[in-house]
Predict the structure.
Amino acid sequence: MEPGLKLLIQLVLEFAPVIANFVEKRNEASSSITKFPQPEEIKQVIETVSNVSQSISFGREAEQEKIQQQQLAVYNHKAQLQIATYQRETALKLPEVNKIFDSWPLRLSPSQILESHSENRRTPLKIFLAPPKIKFDKYDRREEDISNMELKLAEGLRDFLNNYYSLHDPVRPTEFLAGAWDSKRFHSESSIKALYGMLKTEPILILESEASGDYLNFRIGYWGIGQDNYYYKTIAQLPLKEIVYRSAKNRALEWRSIRDELIAMGEDLEEIHILGQDNAANLEILEKEERWKAKGIDVSKLSLKYHVNRQDIENLCQVLVTCHILAASWVTDSYHLIYHDVSPLLPELLPSLLEDNLDVTTLQAIATGYKQLYQALESERDYWVPELALQLAQSLSHLSDRSLAKQQLDYSINAWLRLRQVSPQLGIHPIEEMRLAVRVEDEEYLSKLKQCFALLGDKASMTYVEELLNTIANLKARRKQESAYYLSYTLTGHSDKITSVAISSDGLTVVSGSADKTIKVWNLSTGKVIRTLTGNIGEVASVAVSSDGNFLAVGSCEHPKSNVKVWYLPTGKLIHTLLGHQKPVNCIAISPDGQILATGSNKIKIWNLQTGDRICTLWHSSVVYDAVISSDGTILASGSSDHKIRLWNPRTGDPLHTFSGHSGAVNSVAMSSDGLLLVSGSADTAVKIWHLDSGQVLHTLSGHSDEVKSVAITPDGKSILSAGADTSINMWCLQTGELLQTFSGHSAVVNSIAISPNGQFITSGSSDKTIKIWQINSDQ
């Protein structure tokens, strides 16, 4: 078996149980992270973990459970990371830190490594190469010192990672820090322990190899986020002498073919031998070896010395590069699988990496290793396992041995049935049993299932899946008839992203503000532009219309044009330009009685809307992203970049209360008409429903996969709308938190939503430069 295959099998057998065990320990540890003495910012993250955990216990559809499980995992990772960072900063102040640096194996300092984060939302796995120092004079009389082994290994591994696991890859990022290892000084446990002591906050893989006699010891050092210890072990011993001699023998065999052709042509034997050089010498040794083996002599006991040249060493380098690539791929796949629910890529790459050497034993070991990881994940993210196993089956389906893909398919389907609490019955096809619990949300999974069966040539199973997809098509048609709103039409005309939308109190007009430095007023019924407002306003951040429909207030986010303009909406006449903000004006709010105007930047200014006079200033300590005024005008709620919501008396400027619970910036707030509830949308992807008097979180809604940009409450007080950077709009039941409907249609971030006073229309503005009008389904 090839060295790369042996190493990969051994790595899977050793490493998969370690990772699985870590996942199990992580689940236990997540319940006790509150025991650690935390600074304020860590307490906030842990509070969020607790809130998300509580919301998961609330009854949800399967798709929401799936999203919530992922969110809980994300928050747990974030809490562990912040705690570890706090521990590291504390450790740096201890007197023992200098002793750690005595064993520091890198040319980079800890601060340089910690500052090298990419902009990727997923934390990249940092990969270090600790290369061997090998001399080949012991195999050959000439000294063939491959002093550039590190460069060749780094180049081969870098090329591979840049193609499949680059730092800028949004799915499986790695950061390869070639040349960082001070290979002349350090190897082994003391160096790994020193690295872990200083860099435990960073997921790290060390690929270490060390020459020992005729062998190369290949070791793995690894730890993930929040891991309470490191993994370090010798995975395999690579036979250096055997590898270089095999190359020399192959050269000799190639020369024998050439030699025989030259002899057949009548060329001089002595001249042929001179032309052969070390190939001819190696062929003599090889033919002796073959004769002796034929006589039953154990040639392994003989000290046969083949002549090694640069080509043999290059071949050795390629073998070592392949070994490093296989190890890096397996560990990277495992890391991104357990932290980011990303399916493994290595099975797709194996045929090209190993060419004709790929065998069933290797594939079986890999499939078994991944299954161990999936089983470990079942305890915390069981809703993700069927999909992950299906993705692995697709990766294996193009291989000659189809049984491995079939095993993963069976595992995926059985996991799906367990989640739906469907017990397999003898004599009934498992896919036919799925009919009892199939939902519209399963369409994507079933489509992939059909594709996989097609690749495997399983026509019977494909037929069952097609029947399920037909069932989903019928469910979708029924759901469409029952949907509360449908897309009526799309407004185009802005040349840049739509930042804010509002609907007039009579429900006849829509106002949109854009980064193209214009405001457009549209006829809601026809979709025609009534007028376009411009005039040195800069990029528009927010628009608001007074309840009587007479005033339009606009905030600019372009400094130094950070001002507020007020127009008389029926005629488009500018009546006020309000100055005083020194930073972009991100939000505008008008009180329901039309008397107060609130404008927010890094502070909130309160104005008399009728006269333009300033009433007071509310002093925020961070950027304000949104504000809303209660129906009786006594409370103003504001959301800011410091993750908090603050309540104020808008007439006196007195602070009333502060709500904490989000782990990201609060982008949007909305208040129920009865003044009892507050809804907030955050960069942490969550929507929260708060009791306004007590500040208690009633529900945390986890349905968006990216930050929530805008929230609104329907006029009847029964539903919430949330728009996100994931391009979707969700409608929720305010009372129960149930997801009622998802609006899909925008192709970019949905920045703003507004509801007509009669609840008949919803308008949404997006970075795709369009405004969409959604109309209530009158057939309900």
User: Anything to note?
Assistant: The first strand starts at residue 125 and ends at 130. The first helix runs from residue 3 to 30. The chain is about 40% helix and 25% strand.
